[in-house]
Amino acid sequence: MTVKRMDNVGIVVEDIDAAIEFFTELGLELEGRAPIEGDWADGVTGLRDMRVEIAMMRTPDRHSRLEMSRFLAPPVVADHRSAPVNALGYLRIMFTVEDIDDTLARLGKRGAELVGEVVQYEDTYRLCYIRAPKEFSSGLPKSSGSRLPDEHMGQVQT
Question: Could you tell me which residues are beta bridge partners of residue 70?
Answer without folding.
Answer: 53
